[in-house]
Write a structure and sequence with these properties.
heterodimer, A: SH3 type barrels, four-stranded antiparallel sheet, B: alpha+beta, SH3 type barrels, Alpha-Beta Plaits, 3 domains, five-stranded antiparallel sheet, 9 strands, elongated, disordered N terminus
Chain lengths: 234, 271
């Protein structure tokens, strides 16, 4: 390439000014064009340095939820619950809002201690009350996953419609049942009711793969319990 | 050439303008005549290629544009500095204008090097799902399940989330347990397509719903070479199931040919 350039310059008696001008024009064009590539690489470095999440964390961004497999210079790969891999350009991660379900346990306990020391009212439910420093010490585990999800219950599917109290009792039973599976108690609360009752879950567990393996079973149990009247064989 | 431009010094402005207008007219006339000549020659062929006629059209316009520009310089005897100014402006306009094209070109190179997906991978991109046919310098061409070709600009791929359904199963990482790849290794060669999709089922008796779905999955075991799996993903006004269809990468046509049938069968069970 260079030799051809110099050869042409020699043959046509082109001065260095001309080559300089030409290369400036090309460099500008290429420079402008490669901004998106540069954005990805800078994004990659930025994520590695600021560490909003690490490999193995359970994150959610742009409607995609999964466990981080790899943070590359250009792309970040996450594995979804259906075992498919999503490749997210790092520049997207810089612009999008992001949820990291994985929490550093030691840090959260420290926060709580500081809050109680200064008598700041606890407003965060970051870690369940059952987690204390002693548990942290015995299990020697430094990270927990606190996954939040939402389902909608169509309670008026039967006539008369299913009472909310019954739904609440059913969910409580299932949550108790799955307490041992996830290792921590499951929190739930009802949201607004527009045609369907929004129901939120907060599942705490040590390993994100536990959620991947058991969350469908958990939902299945809830559906079976609440929509019991729909079952053909009682 | 030098003599003309030197003699141009003697023209007064009115004559310069006159020369420029007459010259422009001649150039445009030449362009039209040339185009007619070429077209009459091309159309004599059995099948006139449309691309060639279009290309010639653009080329003649471009040449006449340069000729008019040259005429302008001659008629008004532009100095070297003026030429440089004009060419600098033109140069930056061209480079800004071509930024989009170059962006696509660079993105194409980038995709080939970083390889988020390869040729014949089954991917989901920008809401379109299909097999990658070609990664060219400007576009990535994918063929969807209904055999339509989609051309996606490479630039867009750099800022889109990509789902690659192709999984290499010889990877020995900590997730292999979760993916149960050890078992798959016996069934598949080295690469599988693990395609997943969401399917809503009306609320009803859970056991009979699962039975109906299982029936379809068992039926399609021989078609896909592996029984499709499913699990309850979400609950809204319907029960939303995720289906996972695994196919050996070497037999991707199994997925291509039967996926719509599989979905139809599922729909028929409930509606």
């Amino acid at each position: 390439m260079y030799f051809i350039g110099f050869g042409l310059a020699y043959i046509f008696q082109i001065g260095p000014e001309f080559i300089l001008g030409l290369s400036t024009v090309f460099a500008t064009a290429i420079g402008f064009a490669s901004t998106s590539v540069a954005a990805n690489i800078v994004g990659g470095l930025y994520i590695i340095l600021t560490r909003p999440f690490g490999v193995g964390d359970f994150i959610s961004t742009q409607d995609k939820e999964g466990i981080v497999q790899e943070i590359g210079l250009n792309f970040t790969r996450i594995m979804q619950i259906d075992k498919t891999t999503v490749t997210i350009p790092n520049s997207n991660l810089l612009n999008a809002s992001l949820e990291n379900y994985t929490l550093n346990l030691a840090e959260e306990i420290k926060k709580r201690e500081v809050k109680s020391q200064f008598k700041i009212k606890e407003y965060s439910i970051a870690i369940p009350e059952s987690v204390t420093k002693s548990i942290y010490d015995t299990f020697e585990q430094d990270e927990i996953v606190r996954y939040s999800s939402m389902i909608q219950l169509k309670l008026n599917v039967t006539d008369p419609s299913i009472p909310l109290n019954f739904a609440k009792r059913s969910i409580m039973e299932v949550c108790d049942e799955f307490k041992d599976v996830f290792g921590y108690p499951i929190r739930f609360y009802f949201g607004r009711h527009v045609f369907r009752q929004d129901t939120y879950f907060v599942i705490t567990t040590a390993n994100p793969y536990t959620i991947f393996n058991n969350y469908p079973l958990f939902l299945e149990k809830i559906v079976r319990k609440i929509f019991m009247n729909l079952q053909e064989t009682k | 050439m030098m003599t003309i431009s030197q003699s141009g010094l003697n023209f007064n402005p009115i004559i310069s303008i006159a020369i420029f207008i007459v010259g422009t007219g001649i150039v445009i006339l030449c362009q039209i005549l040339l185009l007619r000549l070429i077209k009459s020659y091309v159309t004599r062929m059995d099948k006139p290629p449309l691309d060639v006629i279009n290309g010639i059209n653009i080329l003649t316009k471009f040449i006449s544009m340069i000729a008019i520009l040259y005429l302008f310089i001659l008629a008004f005897n532009a100095s070297i500095e003026n030429i440089i100014i004009v060419s600098a402006i033109l140069g930056s306009i061209i480079s800004f204008g071509s930024a989009q094209a170059i962006q696509n070109f660079i993105a194409g190179l980038y995709i080939v090097f970083t390889a988020p997906f390869g040729i014949m991978d089954f991917i989901s991109l920008d809401g379109k799902e299909g097999f990658v046919q070609e990664i060219s310098l400007n576009y990535t061409k994918i063929k969807t399940i209904d055999n339509t070709y989609h051309f996606i600009p490479n630039k867009k791929i750099l800022s889109t989330n990509i789902i690659n359904y192709n999984n290499k199963i010889d990877k020995k990482d900590k997730n292999s347990e979760f993916l149960s790849f050890d078992n798959l290794q016996k069934l598949f060669s080295t690469e599988i397509i693990n395609y997943s999709f969401l399917w809503g089922v009306p609320l009803g008796d859970y056991d009979s719903i699962v039975n109906k779905i299982e029936k379809v999955c068992v039926k399609y075991e021989s078609t896909f070479g592996n029984q499709p799996e499913f699990f309850l993903f979400n609950v809204s006004h319907r029960l939303q199931f995720k289906f996972m269809v695994k196919v050996d990468n070497k037999e991707s046509e199994r997925l291509e040919n039967n996926l719509t049938d599989f979905r139809d069968e599922l729909a028929l069970q409930f509606h």
